[in-house]
């Protein structure tokens, strides 16, 4: 099928590459000429496992093309995805400017029936706004006879496993009331809809809300566990045992109940905020969403509280090694990352940071530039050198085993603040480490350091 994707950000690029891989002819359109030129040369603007070879292969085969020429893209695609950004407005609601501009452009240039598919995460009611925008622009050129439908088809991909998530979706939500649209979408996704039917068809508003409900439910699970970890700390319980104890109940499940130092990324914080705003605009008080957001904010300060408790509020003269800058492993994304709250507060209290992340070093430099109190180190070991203590903020695989002797010989004191519960408190105590984590009882170090 001929498909056009507007927006070569995370969602658009992954979706386009995966559809091309399945044999569809996909044209990617973006207004950023530099980005399009780089993509043509095989340079992927984001770090995402498996994406680069996929883009290169399909670009070379001609199944995946990149251009800034919107009219050409519109002529090409019978199905047109809108996957452009929806940054949060000042009041927290999603800014639909780019989505509506694409809608208008499609209407200005289309000359046959188009299936317009909303892929961006957009507030409930956006498909109707897109429909109005297209109708208005068609009317302006006296072309109301041209048919179109606006379909909601939310994505559920995770950064770091986006290609795999897209290749093997656990559900394909299609929001439309038109039979023809459902059939087109089924045809489009047929290569990904094997074994059992993963397509769930519903009205457009339900599809839009389903996306928010999914992310907010996941954010709620995490925040609930984060709150339990604080309680566990106070009552002397071990949150790891609690996690296993409740995860074994299939109604709860093992997924997304890992406590930590708060969720980050481009989706959860933005979507919780956007749904809160939608609810508020409707005169509702979103009590649970308010609590989720507030817990996440506190949780991002939880390890800092432990650091202040240990050292006092004046950290001048102290240096902390920080392992992990990305908001989670396998990405270079630092949007809403807990590491940022940590660093910014440590700096404010006078401390210096020696940081290492396997992928997000450039991103960190882009955000913070050169500053005296931040040293970006080439390896995890060199980040430790001369630091007073180690802080772990992201659960990268390479952080999961700790070479006790190496860490001890590099740090001034054998002291670790672990925001991801990567190590066992007993092992740490036996190795002579003072160890602070999230929701697990502290053990006195037993080996003389
Ligand atoms: C999320 C959703 O998972 C995905 O379905 C949606 O399409 C986009 O938003 P993503 O933001 O890429 O994906 O990351 P995810 O792996 O879901 O993690 C989100 C955050 O939650 C991270 O900060 C992670 O560290 C945190 N998290 C996750 C926990 O703190 N505990 C957990 O048990 C799971």
Automatic annotation (TrEMBL):
Pathway: Nucleotide-sugar biosynthesis; UDP-alpha-D-glucuronate biosynthesis; UDP-alpha-D-glucuronate from UDP-alpha-D-glucose: step 1/1
Gene Ontology molecular functions: oxidoreductase activity
EC number(s) per entry: 1.1.1.22
Catalytic activity as recorded in UniProt: UDP-alpha-D-glucose + 2 NAD(+) + H2O = UDP-alpha-D-glucuronate + 2 NADH + 3 H(+)
Alphabetized UniProt keyword annotations: NAD, Oxidoreductase
InterPro entries: 6-PGluconate_DH-like_C_sf (IPR008927), NAD(P)-bd_dom_sf (IPR036291), UDP-Glc/GDP-Man (IPR017476), UDP-Glc/GDP-Man_DH_C (IPR014027), UDP-Glc/GDP-Man_DH_C_sf (IPR036220), UDP-Glc/GDP-Man_DH_dimer (IPR014026), UDP-Glc/GDP-Man_DH_N (IPR001732), UDPglc_DH_bac (IPR028357)
SMART domains, A to Z: UDPG_MGDP_dh_C
Limits of the UDP-glucose/GDP-mannose dehydrogenase C-terminal domain: 321-425
One protein family per Pfam: UDPG_MGDP_dh_C
Family under the similarity heading: Belongs to the UDP-glucose/GDP-mannose dehydrogenase family.
Protein name as annotated: UDP-glucose 6-dehydrogenase
């Amino acid at each position: 099928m001929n498909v056009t994707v507007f927006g070569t950000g995370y969602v658009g690029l992954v979706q386009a590459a995966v559809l091309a891989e399945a044999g569809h002819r996909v044209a990617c359109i973006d207004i950023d000429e530099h980005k399009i030129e780089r993509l043509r040369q095989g340079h992927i603007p984001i770090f995402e496992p498996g994406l680069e070879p996929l883009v290169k292969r399909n670009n070379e085969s001609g199944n995946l093309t990149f251009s800034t020429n919107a009219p050409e893209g519109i002529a090409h695609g019978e199905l047109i995805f809108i996957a452009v950004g929806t940054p949060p407005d000042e009041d927290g609601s999603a800014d639909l400017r780019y989505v509506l501009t694409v809608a208008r452009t499609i209407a200005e240039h289309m000359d046959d029936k188009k299936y317009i598919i909303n892929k961006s995460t957009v507030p409930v009611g956006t498909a109707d706004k897109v429909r109005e925008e297209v109708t208005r622009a068609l009317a302006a050129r006296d072309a109301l006879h041209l048919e179109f439908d606006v379909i909601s088809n939310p994505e559920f991909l995770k950064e770091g496993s986006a290609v795999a998530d897209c290749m093997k979706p656990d559900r394909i939500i299609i929001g439309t009331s038109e039979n023809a649209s459902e059939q087109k979408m089924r045809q489009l996704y047929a290569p990904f809809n094997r074994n059992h039917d993963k397509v769930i068809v519903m009205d457009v508003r339900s599809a839009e809300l389903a996306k928010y409900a999914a992310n907010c439910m996941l954010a709620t699970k995490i925040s609930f566990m984060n709150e339990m970890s604080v309680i566990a700390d106070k009552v002397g319980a071990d949150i790891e045992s609690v996690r296993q104890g409740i995860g074994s109940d299939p109604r709860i499940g093992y997924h997304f109940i890992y406590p930590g130092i708060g969720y980050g990324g481009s989706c959860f914080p933005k979507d919780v905020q956007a749904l809160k705003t939608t609810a508020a605009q409707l005169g509702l008080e979103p009590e649970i969403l308010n609590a989720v957001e507030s817990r996440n904010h506190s949780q991002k300060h939880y390890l800092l509280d432990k650091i202040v408790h240990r050292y006092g509020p004046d950290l001048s003269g102290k240096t902390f090694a920080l392992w992990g800058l990305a908001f989670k492993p396998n990405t270079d994304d630092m949007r809403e990352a807990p590491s940022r709250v940590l660093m910014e507060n440590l700096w404010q209290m006078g401390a210096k940071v020696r940081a290492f992340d396997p992928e997000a070093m450039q991103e960190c430099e882009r955000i913070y530039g050169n500053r005296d109190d931040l040293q970006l180190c080439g390896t995890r070991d060199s980040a430790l050198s001369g630091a007073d203590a180690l802080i772990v903020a992201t659960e990268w695989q390479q952080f999961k085993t700790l070479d006790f002797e190496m860490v001890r010989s590099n740090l001034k004191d054998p002291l670790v603040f672990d925001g991801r519960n990567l190590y066992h408190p007993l092992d740490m105590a036996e190795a002579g480490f003072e160890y602070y984590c999230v929701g697990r009882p502290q053990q006195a170090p037993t080996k003389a350091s």
